[in-house]
Amino acid sequence: MTVFNLLTFPNVCRACLQSVHPDQTIPVDTYRPLLEATVATFLQDISFEMPADLLPFIPDAVCIACLEVMEFFSKYRRKIKHLHEFLSALVRVKLGDEQPLRELFESRTEHLDVLFRDLDLCNITGAGVEDLLDEYDQYAIASMDTAAATQEAEEPMEEQYLIYCSEEESEATQSEPDEWSHRSKGLKIELDTGTAQNDSEVQKLTALADSGTGKQQKAPDSQADKSSSLLRKQFHCEQCPYKTIFTVAYTIHTKKHEQNEGRHGFVCNNPYCLQLFDTAQELKLHKKANPHKQYECEICGAELKHRISLEVHLERHVGITHFQCTYCTSSFHTKTEMQNHIAAIHISEDRAECEQCGAVFTSNKLLKQHIESHNTARNYQCVECKRSFKTQHQLNRHFKVHSDVRYQCEHCEVSYTRRDKLRMHVEKAHKIQTYFVCDICLRSFDNDEALQQHLQRHKFPNNLECGTCLLVSLTEESFAKHTCITYQENYICCGHDFKHHTVYNKHMMRHGIKVNARVKPNARGVLVGQERASKTTEEARSCAFVLPDQPENET
């Protein structure tokens, strides 16, 4: 009897060194999908590479039991990898960078779905990055003190700050090895990294600085999703690691650098702050105060929770959109807005029904907005005049009354807080056309060019898109059953004129009748504003107060 049970070695399982019947073994050069490699490669990944001269004497198979353990381990390792990718991106939101989380949701959708399901992290189906960001402030991490939490981690890298200095000062310190510098427009920026940075890290920083050309970098084209933000042109700052896909945000950031030219000190690394301080201690106190918990728009003063929200918000001010609807000329600032638009405007499938009135909507979000209209309580109060409203939408619309933004008429001194009011005024008062109306679906446009473009959609509809109402169906069956446009004389029901087809159609749902009604303009050549003005005049006359007949005096 031997001391060690190795009599059959190397005719054993490489993973457990047990003697197993050949029928119960798998050669190590076999590719296994769950391992995403051959068995030999996987074993090398989790251990080390065997020298070539030893391989002829190493067991060349594994038993089925060990293989199952390896496949389970491989699956668990991938799960942990995906989990830590998610953890890292989740924490970066706290530090003001939402982009990693958005990219993770975009590129690892299936992996995240499996992860959330396995760990029971998500309570609804189809939740996305916007849902997570909307409730991020409710998580415990949102209330943590960023400065205090990172103080210990920052200790070894005491002076890891951007330092603005003059050319003379930079030359005096040029011999120090642990500096990241980049020259631009006579300004030198250095990252004093202290003693904790090793040479390889400095090289990475230098490479990053050299690659930051400040010019737009375009990713390769993809047929899968050309509107994806991941494939948009990206801007890299020449003077710091900041990068973004948003033009306005990049412009504001670079102007912050320009304002610091010729000055020196320790700078806050928040891309929309870049405030200079005389000492590192002052900078630490600045960060400890957590002034960047919210992002403030420099144009209108609005405060937003996340950096990406601010960057999108800034684009709205100048009308820049990146996501084009595939069914019409509308374009949007975010992919979510585009998808909501397609679901609400173009797709005819009914997915969510109001339990109170039976109205149906193409998304739960639209249903939620509709349900608010049933509330009798006015819970949304204007901070300016204290008037209250039933829905957030009504409050937002009202709040424009208090806005400093006014739409000035080019033909007289009248101005309005709403653009549609100005357009109606121009047509009624100055007889100038501002509404270009489609005579098929009655949608209006700002100019004739946009109208003609729209009419081409009626003439050449896409697959499963109705040429009349332009609603899109998901199947042939739903296309045959969809509610198309019908024409009638007016929008009167229950003794009330609802004046607009959307209001009228929603009202009819209260009667359990689903319609897609339209009333064509009565006279060609009459402007929309003029026609509405004439209707208003007629209604005023019909509603004129008439004294009731007086009874005869009895004598």
Provide an overview of this structure:
This protein is an alpha+beta fold. Among the domains are: 18-136, no CATH class; 235-320, no CATH class; 350-430, Classic Zinc Finger (Double Stranded RNA Binding Domain, 2-Layer Sandwich), CATH 3.30.160.60; 437-511, no CATH class. Helices cover 38% and strands 13% of the residues. It has 19 helices and 28 strands. The strands form twelve sheets. The chain has a five-stranded antiparallel beta sheet. Strand 13 (295-296) and strand 14 form a beta hairpin. Helix 2 (64-94) runs antiparallel to helix 3 (99-107) and helix 15 crosses helix 19 (528-542). The radius of gyration is 33 Å and the shape is extended. InterPro entries: Znf_AD (IPR012934), Znf_C2H2_sf (IPR036236), Znf_C2H2_type (IPR013087). It comes from Anopheles stephensi (Indo-Pakistan malaria mosquito). One of its GO terms (molecular function) is zinc ion binding. This is C2H2-type domain-containing protein. Keywords: Metal-binding, Repeat, Zinc, Zinc-finger.
